[in-house]
Fold these 3 entries.
Entry 1:
Amino acid sequence: MLVVALLAATAAAFALTQGLKNQPAGISGTKVDNVFSPVCSCASETASIQFRLRAADRLDVSVVDGSDRVVRTIEQGRQYARGPVEIEWDGRDDVGRVLPEAEYKPRVRLRDDRTTYTLPNPIRIDVTPPRLELVAAPRILSPDGDGRRDLATFRYEADEPAKGMLFVNGRRRVLKRFARTEDTIVWNGKVGGKALPSGIYTAAVAAVDPAGNVSTRSRPVPLLIRYVALGRKRISVTAGAAFALRVSSDARRVRWSLGGRSGVARPGTLRLRAPLQPGRFTLTVSANGHASRAALFVREPTP
């Protein structure tokens, strides 16, 4: 009889334990930001703590460090309805000091349910910006769609995974999608779908880590956007005399027009003959829809 009683008691205890295990948890669907920077002054300067309440309850929400010590109390006895709950943590302790770089965990106590949950999802504070080096940068860009120097490629390396950013004349033009320790940034020289005018621009590269910390920008490098460039904008020549002009372009051919004449030539040294009549003329050199002009002053031949 004693053995039977012990077996019965054991079975009852087992059934009770299994029943407790099968009861739904007071919270579910936890989702926590895994890294953030309280000092980045960006969208990720706070960490989001999300979960669902099985029933309405009064909550105590705190944050504990690796030693299970409470370093911040966020909520005390606040009533929440059944359903989704989202709480923000700014990475600071109870007196407003930014906590050291480390991993922390949220702890949620349900007062009415008399249960406490330490969420398994760690939150890492990271306030150290990545360090970046610009390894290679182009000097000339010609975004005219002919397949020759239409894209500018910048190569960089970082000391931690980070998303690269390209700044042109101080404005951000490219942000990479993925965080990597080394990558390339490719820019098409366009803003709002339109190619920028020819000229010298300043380009620099930076990077932002997953926490939101931004590196210092790389050394600035000059970037020449060029379509057709002429070596001189003012030419003086005797009527009917031959003259030469340097033409820089990434196009395979350029078209020139002067005093009713026109032709096609390769970029490089353009050799032409001045009109026979003295006066002021305009020499136009174009390629792929872009043109550059020079004033040609033709004088009488010396007797």
Entry 2:
Amino acid sequence: MPWIVGIDEAGYGPNLGPLVMTSVACRVPSDLDGADLWRVLRAAVRRHPSRKDGRLLVEDSKLVYTTARGLLDLETGVLAALSPWQTSQDVCLAQYIDWACPDSHADLRGESWYSGSSRLPVATPAGGFGRPAERFRRACAKKGLAWGLVRSVVLCPPRFNALVDEWGSKGAALGHALAELLRCNRHLEGEAEPVTFVIDKHGGRNTYAPMVQHALPDAMVLAHEESMNRSRYSLLGLGREVRLVFEPRADAGHFCVALASMASKYLRELLMLEFNRFWQVHVPGLKPTAGYHTDSTRFFADIRPAAERLGIPEAALWRRK
């Protein structure tokens, strides 16, 4: 049974807050390798935000979440499809991070604004994702799908800026996060089973072989196609068939990438809730921010005096690229 691993990020563009990149692994029967999982799981999932019928909304996170629509659909989809918790369990953000991105927790604990105390779910009523979660599990079991590792990498401004300084490129942050996720997923259960990584392209980049080779130095990377529409690679020497496909807008064409996009966006939004809450304590009346360029300039100007009083340097808050 082959593995499909979708990878996507959220928060690459903002000046404030973290970059989050996530991988979502799914084991599928051989006859469903390359199949449209939206169609396979149509009894439990939907793609249209306006069609409220009890199924999970799984789509590019930019369509699932808007400030007007709020976190409800995004949170329900991520927790119901991917998380290990039952609806009755009392969970905080720190527990979620220990599950999704344990290697990033030390950096987060070094952030002045992070507490990890936010209670989950944030927007979904108590017990609100139990029924769609059970529906999703039944649909997956019926089709023989099994969900594996969910892993996120969180890069806060200090680490983000250090990578930019070291490599001279903002793309180094994406490369660093991707390398961590490739290494996390190289030992998926079933050592002989093939693995296909489907990854949303990093901006306009077409060439990924050096990045992949750096991430997995014991493999030999073979490039098969490098174009605007698709970049394809295979890896030799890992004891199993491993393929990588980079596509623009992969979250619109691949179910696992859409879920990775949603998981990345959800975690970033949870962290931004804590970020805004911290600064609103120190700057009464402060309007919250999503961290994107125009509004981040306003927000940073508003918090600068408080940051100076607290001894928090600009490089710990502001992503320079």
Entry 3:
Amino acid sequence: MKNRGIIIFLIVLAVVIVAVMMSDFLSDRPDKRDANPYEYNVDEFKEVAPELIFYKEAKNFKIGFEKPAGIDIRNDSIFLVGDKSLKIVDCNGVLINEISLPDQPQTVESAEGLIYVAFEKQVLVYFSDGTLLREWEPLHENSLITAVSVFGENVFVADAGMRKVYHFSKEGELLNEFEGKSGDDVLHGFIVPSPYFDLDINPDGDLWIVNPGKHALENYTFGGNLRSHWENTGINIEGFSGCCNPAHFTFLPDGSFVTSEKGMVRLKIYRPSGEFSGVVAAPNQFKDEGEAPDVAVDNAGNIYALDFDRKILRVFEPK
């Protein structure tokens, strides 16, 4: 009799345990869970006050790339790379010339009649008719070139793989290289957690480099010494949030910065001194958690955004 009571007790206990387990399982379904009180909702930051948006999208056109990679503008010509190809188009998207490339390109820069096309570890220089002028020596086996900028006889190359900036002559001779350190008080160097590492030269000839892990833009001499910097971390419209932002940037004719962010995608303007000025395009104009468009500016101050998610070139004009 005693054994029978024990058996009944064990059966009842087993039923209770199964019931509790089923209850926990059902309550843990996504549609049954309680709201997470610690969840950080960023939806409110995707809305931008209309008075802060200084530009409007005037037009866009398809570029014919499955994997677009980069853009540059010189005078009235737009240089686009992607899909083992370089395309030169006018400001209405009409094809002027197309040049076949040996591999998938990373970025492009045009200066003084020459076109610098960067691949992961190497830069090739072309004439505008597609003739190959010069093939530079490959960089390190771990290199990943993400940006090229030219000023006079100087060519600067950003290498996200090695977290370095290289200073070359126009002929491809390496003049110097630096890692973003200017002294014992600046030990962080370039912090590049992912393959977003941009640089550009403003209309006054000043070299600016993104330090993406610090949400900073840093001004260096051509010899690699830090002269000044500004940074702005924050999810609010004035700041840069997430990892590795701004992902891309360029300059307006007056020296103002045009920045492009990934994740919560947005294009913004900052004054030459670094203060937030306004917005080119808000997050609701892009794909959620999308790629940061590469950006370029024409002589009239119109901003061109190479939208990698939609595979189109979008043109924003001042309102």
